[in-house]
Please model this.
Amino acid sequence: MLQSRARAEESRLDVERRLKYLGAARVSLDVLRLYWDGTNVRREPSRQHVEILAECFHKEGCHRLKLHNHVPAKISQDCLDSALRNSSVSAHQLLNGVPELTFPDDYKLDYLHGLHRIEAAREFLSETDKWWTVDLYLSDLDTNLETCLIEEYSNEEEPSDGEVYRKIRQYKDNFIFRQRWRARLKKTRARDMTTLLRNEELTEAFDSLLPIYGLWDGMMLTTIHKITPMKCPELITNYLERIKEFYSDLVEGDEHAMQKIDPATVKAIELRAPRASTKDAKFLYSEIHGGRIFSAFSDPEREEIWRRLQTFEGLVPSLYTFFHDILYLELLTDSVRWLTRIPKNKSLIEALQKRFTGVNQENGLIRIQRTEGTFVHREGNRADQIDYGIRQLFAFAMREYPSMPREPKEEDLLQQPRAHAVPSVLHCFADLASDLGFASDEITALKQLGTDARRTYPRSRPILVTSGPGVALSVRCGKPRCRSSKTDRNLLFIDHLHDTRQDQGDGITSFFVRKSVYLAFFGRPSRMGTPTMDNDMED
Model:
């Protein structure tokens, strides 16, 4: 059935192509303009791909007449007739040769694909030889045929994972086009795409980002297989919603404006801390006011975007940062899962909520861990106790995940050996869970493990910024480096992670990064007062 549908669609498009095809001509590069329908994002050339093609032209020559190098273009019958007259060319010649067509100086011929070869030709060809071979079609093309012509690739570039996902979602009601894009994925990436599309909640979260075209170069399908086993859809969704909220706020929720945020802009701003780091702020100010990013916006619009960008707390998120930070979240969830079994069709968060019994809690008070073995109380209801309790379990995992790796499954025993969990750390983890009101068979079992003396974490005020360059962009997402992990360990308590103070310096610290990643996944609690000596009650 699939083959018959594909054959029927192919036959229909072939008939339409023959009806609307007018022939081929040599056209000046000055006349050619990439077609834009005014709704989707205007495509910009990749500098890297242009340079690669220009180098190929230099080494192999520029073969403009070869059929697979032609670019398709749309033209009205009236404009074609005028060009034929001005060029002393007949319609018959278009179909039986490649004559030169001349157009008025102010005329632009919209070509449908071949952006990078045209841009490379502009740079490579001499001023007296700047033309390209164009296949001409009547402008009243069938929508599906136009789409096929736009999306034809001649090995100019491999589509990114994000582009394939966007196209599959764009054509969710067009089976043939959807399958055509899925066919571009091979082996593991194809399986990962299937896994993603079967997860309606995750797909819906990604779909909310579709208007922000510039994000999608950061998608990594090869990480999708890690998301479902973590069983943390709430945290995944929180991060994706934070991405949407950030880019939406930059343009006051204007969806059309979101489409104008291009990949170069996202690449420049992701992982920057414009409010905390003066170094990042200076870089972004220069790029924005120089028109190198947010280039599709006017000067007044860029000024307004800059004003909003300066107020953003934390690191600028993107799909690139999301897929790298997933690797960190995996380490944390592996640790927290020591405390409970997760029922079928339930999440880790839901399982922990079920394990909350209120043991060791006082009505109307939240128990807050300040250091190992030191707690204070603040006002809050049962829902707050559960929320803060779960957050504190993850904070413990942030401190101790290297000592609490998940036990390998039996079928994984032939793989590279993993470090085993440290019994004394698991014992401390179970004690904390019990202190915060959680109870389970797993917690009881862990409390039977041997324990060394409790680890001590000196209470100190975390440093968010530094007078030096601070943490490099390359290590602001993903798994923490060993040195920074050890340095930050005594600071990773929720009082510090929820602290709303905003410092400013040249660069940011590794703790600033950890705090930003935590807030991306968890957000701030709905009830959060600034801790003071007056409203804290020591245990």
Notes: The two ends are 70 Å apart (CA to CA). Residues 411-418, 529-534 have pLDDT under 50 and may be disordered. Residues 2-151 form one domain. The longest strand covers residues 21-28.
